[in-house]
Design goal:
Helices cover 63% and strands 10% of the residues. The protein is elongated.
């Protein structure tokens, strides 16, 4: 049994135990009389620990300590006699242990899912290699490029590129027969490869939290960045038949910080996404 299967099993077994205890708790003669806020804490703790990706990137002690604190706060602020009819220390300890156990199982499952996603990303990158970096990991280089442009009064532009997620037919055409999640990752990696082939070595290629590509272009004004973006879009359409949109912003004419540049480019991308397809086609034809 793999680690992922084992984590699924223990998480499911834990939830089944909680469900059985909950059903017994509301019967005429409960086995153990738990407080109602204990079940509420479990209902919140397990899915939050499981479905927030950032939690799997920190130590397991972080969610364990957080939910231990939540339980102690509930214990001090809510009257147990309203639902449990008992203040036995052994029951309180058991509630605490069961809650922490649930958080631990959820954390382990989230960790294994994160590993599985990393493997899928690695497979996609091995098929379509590119040099995209996580945007959060490149803060230092982004600051260096902005500082250099500001100090020497040189232009710098930013391009945000996004594939339309509802273009299912085109996605299937790229990787027919691959399951949706893998297909999405392979498609994204392919787009990254095409972008990588058309930008300079001095350009910085990034991925944001939504999976969109962000290209930081030193020594590039707004008009040149727009031409670059259009060449990239044309190449993606030619090679994959995907519908892709972009937004561009420029330093220092439109923004003075990276966050503002990113926000400006994202706003333009969102506006282009909201335009009817007929207007986008006319706009693209006119620009060419």
């Amino acid at each position: 049994m793999t680690n992922l299967k084992r984590s699924f099993f223990w998480a499911a077994f834990y939830l089944a135990v909680i469900f059985v205890l909950g059903q017994a708790d509301y019967s005429g003669r409960p086995i153990i009389n738990f407080a109602s806020y204990f079940y509420l804490a479990v209902i919140l703790a397990v899915p939050i620990t499981l479905f927030f990706p950032a939690i799997s990137r920190v130590s397991s002690f972080v969610p364990l300590f957080v939910w231990a604190g939540v339980y102690l706060i509930l214990l001090q602020t809510i009257d147990r006699s309203l639902s449990a009819n008992t203040n036995e220390f052994s029951v309180i300890v058991l509630e605490f242990v069961l809650l922490e156990t649930g958080v631990w199982f959820a954390y382990q499952l989230a960790l294994q899912l994160s590993h599985a996603e990393s493997i899928m990303d690695a497979l996609a990158l091995s098929a379509f290699p590119n040099r995209a970096h996580d945007i959060e990991a490149e803060n230092q280089r982004i600051k260096i490029e902005l500082t250099r442009s500001r100090r020497y009064h040189r232009p710098l532009s930013l391009v945000v590129i996004e594939s339309l997620g509802d273009d299912e037919k085109s996605t299937v055409a790229v990787l027919k027969g691959v399951q949706h999640d893998l297909m999405s990752r392979f498609t994204s990696a392919r787009i990254g490869q095409l972008i990588d082939d058309r930008i300079r070595q001095t350009d910085l290629m990034l991925r944001d939290y939504r999976g969109r590509f962000v290209v930081l272009c030193p020594e590039t004004d707004l008009a040149s960045a727009e031409l670059l973006a259009k060449r990239i879009i044309d190449a993606i359409k030619e090679k994959t038949d995907l519908n892709v949109l972009f937004g561009v912003s420029a330093f220092p004419d439109e923004a003075l910080t990276f966050d503002d540049l990113l926000q400006k480019a994202r706003e333009r991308l969102v506006r282009s996404r909201e335009m009817p397809k007929e207007e986008l086609v006319l706009l693209d034809t006119h620009s060419n």
